[in-house]
Amino acid sequence: LYLNTENTNSLPNSILKSNVDRDKIKTGIAHIGLSNFHRAHQAYYMHELIEQHQELNFGICGIDLLESDRKIYNILKDQDGLYTLITKKANGTIDYKIISSIIEYFYGPENPLAAIERLARPDIKIISLTIAEDGYHLNETTGEFNLTHPQVKEDSLSKFNPKTVFGYLTQIFNLRKERGLPGCTILSCDNIQANGDTVKKSFFNYVEKTTPSLLPWLQENTSFPNSMVDRITTVTSAKDIELFKDTYNIYDQWPVVSEPFSKWIIEDNFISGKPDWEKVDIQFVKDIEPFENAKLRILNAGHSILGILGTLNGYKYVHEVANDEDFIFFLEHYIKTEVIPSLQNTEQQNLKAYKKEVIDRFKNPHINDSLSRICKESSSKIPIFVFPTLLKQLSNQESIAHATFVMAAWCKYYDGVDDYGKTFDITDNLSNQLIRTAALSQQNPQLFLENNSLFKDLVHHDRFKERFEYYLSKLRSLSIKEGLVLMNTGKL
Ligand code: NAD
């Protein structure tokens, strides 16, 4: 049986506990980018709020904008928006839950005007986004909005057939303004620094260039809260699909797989109201920055570090690296001696406990999170996750040993070969350039750091440059594991 409303009758209550008549749920949120993460995080929270607290005004309308999203769009249509959230605990227990908060779906490439019309309607109070780093069209090196990006340029010329989020948003708000309708909140749920501020700056930049007359209205009628999102959500495997089918005799074409942990902290800045998210443990704060920095520099940096070091050692999954004492000892020391001391305004958080929790989450052997997912686009991740720690430690005249060792390993990563001589794929917008400078660094290690717009202020710190050269020269003759053992015993 295929998963859809009709066929769910055969499922046990524990998986499909529903106290609510789905027809009574009204749409209040439009979400662009029906990513795995969105389905495991925001759509899950909304499901809980609907089911446990009968919140009927904030069902989700999903919109996808990419050609590559056709599959998920068709599946959600087939399945009446239903899908299974598979939660894998560290002890091996697996929980299944059918999530039913996505009640409408639109597919931009097929009918952009239908999606625009839908989002222009005033019942949509929040437009949320998970569009990955890519969807923000930030310049890969400066981090600023890239008005010369080919898709952005195309959208600014042909306004009624947009491809980018900014093209869509402009049309949506144009209609709202013309029709005298209210604005709404735009809520980014991506792992980018100051995600609300970033999307606001990029969007306003785009509007200034393409439709300047809309800008004053937008300034009055939209808000952009920053948010911190946290739940490890992996790529769904064929095995996950099979196991659910074999256990319950229902075929879900695309369930999502996640860990039990979940967190969402948001700045309370919603211009048209919001669901009572507090009831499902979503936290609201005035200033997200300390929480965001702790998460980016401990969890996301930790992930990237295990990704890069582990790949060099031939590992394939996060839990393999996290259960290797040499790797985890190094990461714990990095967090303890370089990250935590350099974080500011952390009174409201117990960072020692957070470090332990993050490391335990990495060790969960049932999540099967691939290092290739973690290492994808690391040139847009490392500058956000690791550079701020390095710069703060440099300005405080404190230790930079672990962070700099990671930078040297990151250079070696672009050789594309692990310590056993096996090649691995590198998926990165800057891969051509970084593979070339990593090769040049064999002669002169400083050449890897030559890109001023990527490495920015780091290139002005001689202490960092000397240390980088030292570690890179060591790693040219040592394996990553040998290097870590020496680091962990204070011999490097
Ligand atoms: P995914 O591949 O399932 O989803 C990527 C989504 O981004 C797709 O819906 C796609 O349509 C959208 N997208 C990509 N490029 C776009 C573009 N140019 N324009 C519009 N939409 C675009 O990946 P995922 O693992 O679900 O992660 C999605 C995002 O969620 C990440 O980029 C990250 O910022 C955030 N996130 C993920 C996790 C996680 O553990 N997976 C945790 C926290 C935050």
Considering the chains and any ligands shown, give keywords for the structure.
2 domains; globular; four-stranded mixed beta sheet; N-(1-d-carboxylethyl)-l-norvaline Dehydrogenase, domain 2; 492 residues; Rossmann fold; six-stranded parallel beta sheet
Topology:
Blueprint lengths: L26 E6 L3 H5 L1 H12 L5 E6 L5 H9 L4 E6 L5 E6 L2 E6 L4 H9 L5 E4 L20 H8 L7 H14 L5 E5 L6 H16 L4 H7 E2 L3 E4 L2 E2 L3 H11 L7 E3 L4 E5 L15 E3 L3 H24 L5 H5 L2 H18 L8 H13 L7 H5 L2 H8 L1 H9 L5 H13 L17 H10 L11 H4 L6 H16 L2 H9 L4
Parallel strand pairs: 1-2, 1-6, 2-5, 3-11, 6-7, 7-8, 12-13
Antiparallel strand pairs: 3-4, 9-12, 10-11
Helix pairs in contact: 4-6, 6-7, 10-12, 10-13, 10-15, 10-17, 12-13, 12-16, 12-21, 17-20
The site of nicotinamide-adenine-dinucleotide has 22 residues, from helix 1.
